[in-house]
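Weekly structure sync, notes
Attendees: PL (lead), two postdocs, one rotation student
Agenda item 3: pending single-chain targets
PL asked that the sequence for the first pending target be pasted directly into the notes so everyone works from the same version. It is reproduced below exactly as submitted, 52 residues in total.
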Amino acid sequence: MFGYNGYGGYGMMGGLGAWSFFGLLTWVFLIAFLVLGIAYFWKEINKPKGKR
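Predicted structure, written out during the meeting:
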């Protein structure tokens, strides 16, 4: 999918299993953090204006 990435190894297409695993783990953490951030922000926006 991404080939060489900036995390010190080849991403999902690399031949090195350990680096592929850590690259994948990094992407999973980034995506999870992004999703949680968006969900939290969305809840904050959609709160009733009386309660803060």
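Discussion points:
- The two ends are 43 Å apart (CA to CA).
- Residues 17-45 form the longest helix (29 residues).
Action: rotation student to compare against the earlier draft before next sync.
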